[in-house]
Design brief:
This protein is mainly alpha-helical. It is built from six helices and no strands. The protein is extended. It starts with a helix and ends in a 15-residue tail after the last helix.
Length: 134
């Protein structure tokens, strides 16, 4: 369903995810485009909400760190590490070849429900890097 929506956003392109900046050529998004998401998102926020220019810089790794921290409350450590694509390390990596598919599915479902709750509530908005006024 998400791919169908993405295709509808760019009906004249041969690519599901074309380059954002239009050129004469129809090209796919670059291999490094994901690295630009935090900066592009901050710029969009700054353009839309000029008062938020106090927002500190953040990276995709900051998002991964947040997800991993929250996963500690949802699934066991080994499952949380596997969900982020981390290897277990040490003897665990040698002896434990579990793919944790069922556990990860449960973890992702729980994480999605947490996000759904946050998206649906205005009072859960937190501006990272800015002090909230009371």
């Amino acid at each position: 369903e998400l791919f169908k929506r993405a295709i509808k956003l760019n009906p004249n392109s041969a690519w599901v995810f074309p380059k954002e900046r239009r050129t004469d050529k129809d090209e796919p998004v670059s291999a490094t485009a994901m690295l630009d998401i935090p900066r592009n998102l901050r710029m969009k926020i700054f353009d839309t909400y000029p008062d938020y220019k106090k927002m500190t810089n953040w990276t995709k790794h900051d998002v991964r760190r947040t997800v991993r921290t929250r996963m500690s409350n949802i699934v066991p450590r080994d499952v949380a590490e596997s969900m982020l694509g981390h290897v277990l390390g040490g003897t665990e990596d040698s002896y434990n070849h579990n793919d944790f598919l069922e556990e990860k599915l449960l973890g992702y479902k729980k994480w999605y429900s947490i996000l759904e709750e946050l998206w649906g509530r205005d009072d859960n908005f937190v501006l990272f890097g800015a002090k909230q006024s009371r």
